[in-house]
Design brief:
alpha/beta; 2 domains; 7-stranded mixed beta sheet; globular
Length: 386
């Protein structure tokens, strides 16, 4: 099935969707480092990016009309700078907000479905009107803003159309905040996901059921000990527990889900790049980065929990979320390869740019596994509807 990948970044969402059965006919990403990363990987025969078309730059200059009716899916993570709820703002021309371009791609191509992701903060109460504005534009992409129309007026017109207008060209849209850890990603990463199906397909869909849980990890660590046995960690080497054993004792039965995957699950087979630099050098993008330090609010990710959300950092410098907190209390930065594993990128994936630039790409990425899980469920529904 053909797709369009917008705001591709390092390609996490696109690769997951490729594994789900979608093949991009067009890929758009403005950042030159991300474009180089994609270009390096699209030439690798075994890469999920193999055969991707040449990456196009600024989405605002891309014409999608030639692909009308020819793609099943439009996907991407539009950069989103929610504008102030006060004052006059043009709904169709805010340079900080790329959702209008995502909606234009949907309008011009009329795909069977779309998948868009964004930061959890978009669901905050202070952005509620903006969130609803995005959702209604996605549901009714043909109800476009008029010249010089204030965004609030456009929202009101969308609401009236939604309650009393026709459904021609409309989409059935649902949105939910998902935690990537609940789907087997070794990272607590929450993002809001928008999924829409073209109205005429009459598709009934819901988000995939969570496959992993915190309770199952508690059970494996503090009830049957299977987690420690699997990693061959003796009792004396296990980290001091806080309230975890007490919480585990309150579980009435072993959870049916799988255990959340932890940092140890993701990187245990990699040599520590600080303690064993020569062995680490045998692995691509696995070098020690000095300078990590711990202080209040900047403590890193414990080895035996899913990682905290990897961040793109401020001015290219990652924060405490991008550090490993060892059981002995010391910290170090995650290597690029370790960070890639926390984002479920394959070990043969090549990154372009410096350490800080690469960490920025990873901090902005969608976990490949999460994209694959959602994509497979969407693809399944589209095949049934064909």
């Amino acid at each position: 099935m053909k797709s369009i990948e917008l705001f591709a970044g390092a390609g996490g969402l696109g690769m997951g969707l490729c594994r789900a059965g979608f093949k991009p006919a067009k890929v758009v990403e403005w950042d030159r480092y991300c474009r180089e990363t994609i270009r390096e990987n699209r030439d690798l025969p075994l890469s999920p990016m193999h055969g991707w078309p040449e990456v196009e730059g600024d989405v605002r200059g891309v014409d999608f009309s030639a692909l009308e009716g020819k793609v099943e899916l439009v996907s991407g993570g539009p950069p989103c700078q929610p504008f102030s709820m006060g004052g006059k703002h043009k709904a169709y021309d805010d340079a900080r907000d790329m959702f209008p371009q995502a909606i234009r791609a949907v309008r011009e191509t009329r795909p069977k479905a779309f998948i868009f992701e964004n930061v959890k903060g978009l669901t905050r109460a202070s952005f509620r009107n903006y969130f609803e504005y995005i959702r209604l534009q996605l549901e009714h992409p043909y109800v476009t803003a008029r010249p010089d129309e204030d965004w609030a007026d456009h929202l009101a017109r969308l609401e009236r159309h939604h309650t009393h207008g026709d459904r021609d060209g409309a989409y059935r849209v649902i949105a939910r905040v998902l935690n990537a850890a609940d789907y087997g990603v070794p990272q607590k990463r929450e993002r809001v996901i928008f999924v829409g199906f073209r109205d005429d397909l009459d598709i009934e869909w819901s988000f995939p059921v969570e496959t992993h849980s915190s309770d199952a990890l508690l059970w494996a660590q503090h009830r049957d000990g299977s987690y420690w046995d699997r990693h061959k960690v003796a009792k004396a080497q296990r980290p001091d527990a806080t309230d975890a054993p007490a919480r585990a004792s309150r579980l009435e039965a072993k959870p049916e889900t799988l255990a959340w995957r932890t940092v140890r699950d993701a990187i245990a087979d990699l040599p520590d790049p600080e303690l064993h630099p020569k062995l680490a050098a045998e692995h691509r993008n696995h070098r020690f980065q000095p300078g990590a330090r711990s202080y209040p609010g900047h403590t890193g990710s414990p080895l035996d929990e899913p990682a905290k959300t990897l961040k793109a950092g401020v001015h290219g410098v990652p924060g405490g979320e991008n550090m490993l907190a060892r059981p002995d209390g010391t910290v170090r930065y995650f290597s690029v390869r370790e960070s890639a594993r926390l984002q479920t990128f394959a070990d043969d994936f090549v990154f372009h740019g410096s350490w800080s630039e690469t960490m920025r790409q990873l901090g902005n990425a969608v976990p490949v596994r999460l994209a694959e899980v959602i994509g497979k469920d969407v693809a399944r529904k589209l095949r049934y509807a064909a």
